[in-house]
From TrEMBL:
Localization annotation: Cell membrane
Protein name per UniProt: Synaptotagmin-like protein 2
GO terms of molecular function: neurexin family protein binding
GO CC, alphabetical: exocytic vesicle; plasma membrane
Every C2 domain range: 51-173, 188-320
InterPro entries xref list: C2_dom, C2_domain_sf, SYTL1-5_C2B
GO biological process: exocytosis
Length: 350
């Protein structure tokens, strides 16, 4: 939920290789072992329980402290998760949409063995009122499982732009099944305009001074359209790039920051060497867009270019999850050596 490689699920130890001038080395063939994994912030088990019951809460904005407050009172008649024991261990969780990773989640305590939990807790967000009014509140109820396989019990989504802020009283609201916007964070995160090219080893001929001894992948990040507007002034965005499974500093590249623009033009080219043709089926180019702030950067969306097989060098990895559009883009590059392949790809949560 901050400027880290939190969407990257595996890190690999590799043999060191001296990078060439003007590029970052990514010697993919020297992968040796898996060293760890990190779950995505968007992971979760939504369970198979039908949503039912109601939740009582109230909303308020403290002008003095510039704080949004969600007073969660109680729930009634929630679904039973463990039918054998006739129990649920519910808690309430909130996000501010469209970008739930930006503001983070808030949650109540867990009430055990009850379908009628009483909380009387206040969940707080430090946020400017004018920014709050372009958000939606997603409030959901979950069963807490000791092994982390939490089950979804129901939710409600509130458009804060149309909320009556003079209404500070507690009210009951019916819980609904999971909505598309809650699962994906947003319906639309923007579109990246880019070109990619693969230069096979020695393919430019002996007389060419720039003929690479090993293969190269060229990535030309042109621009991004329709980014999420997290602030009234727009968004200060930049693009990060890794070639997975390599998450070392040699793999990491980024563009400059484009300020106050939801349609930033980067026109930035990234070159990775050390690519053998056979590495293309096991590697994945991850491009992510971030909003830049002083204390921490916020994830806006990304794409992963690869074959989407779920495997990398024979190891099962969850980052090899390219969509059909991303796979087709990568395959076209593989089949057209030394040619720029252009594409418009939608950003997504990773």
């Amino acid at each position: 939920e901050s400027d880290t490689a939190s969407e990257i699920s595996f890190q690999f130890n590799r043999h060191k290789k001296t990078p060439s001038i003007g590029s970052h080395s990514s010697d993919m063939a020297s992968v040796s072992s898996v060293s760890g994994s990190v779950l995505s912030v968007y992971s979760g088990d939504f369970g198979s329980v039908d949503a039912q019951g109601t939740v009582e809460f109230a909303l308020d904005y403290d002008e003095k402290n510039r704080e949004f407050q969600v007073h969660v009172s109680q729930c009634k008649d929630l679904a039973v998760v463990d039918e054998k024991k006739g129990r649920s261990d519910p808690y309430v969780k909130t996000y501010l949409l469209p970008d739930k990773a930006r503001m983070g989640k808030r949650k109540t305590s867990v009430k055990k063995k009850t379908v009628n939990p009483i909380y009387n807790e206040v969940l707080r967000y430090k946020i400017e009122k004018m920014v709050l009014l372009i958000q939606k509140l997603n409030l959901s109820v979950w069963h807490n499982d000791p092994l982390g396989r939490n089950s979804f019990l129901g939710e409600i989504e509130v458009d804060l732009a149309s909320w009556d802020w003079s209404n500070r009283k507690l009210h009951w609201y019916p819980l609904k099944p999971r909505s598309f916007s809650a699962v994906n964070g947003v319906d639309h995160r923007g579109v990246m305009n880019l070109s990619i090219k693969y230069v096979p080893p020695g393919s430019l001929g002996k007389m060419c001074p720039k003929n690479p001894p090993s293969g190269e992948v060229h990535i030309w990040v042109k621009d991004v359209k329709d980014l999420l507007q997290l602030r009234p002034s727009g968004v200060d965005s930049f693009v990060k790039c890794y070639v997975l499974p390599d998450t070392s500093k040699k793999s990491y590249q980024k563009t400059r920051v484009i300020k106050r623009d939801t349609n930033p033009v980067f026109n930035h080219t990234i070159v990775y060497d050390g690519f053998h043709t056979e590495d293309l089926k096991d590697a994945c180019v991850e491009l992510t867009v971030w909003d830049h702030e002083k204390l921490t950067n916020h994830f806006l969306g990304g794409i992963r270019l690869g074959l989407g097989t779920g495997l990398s060098y024979g190891i099962s990895v969850d980052w090899m999850d390219s969509t059909q559009e991303e796979v087709a883009f990568w395959q076209e590059m593989m089949s057209a050596a030394n040619e720029w392949i252009e594409g418009l790809l939608p950003l997504r949560s990773l």
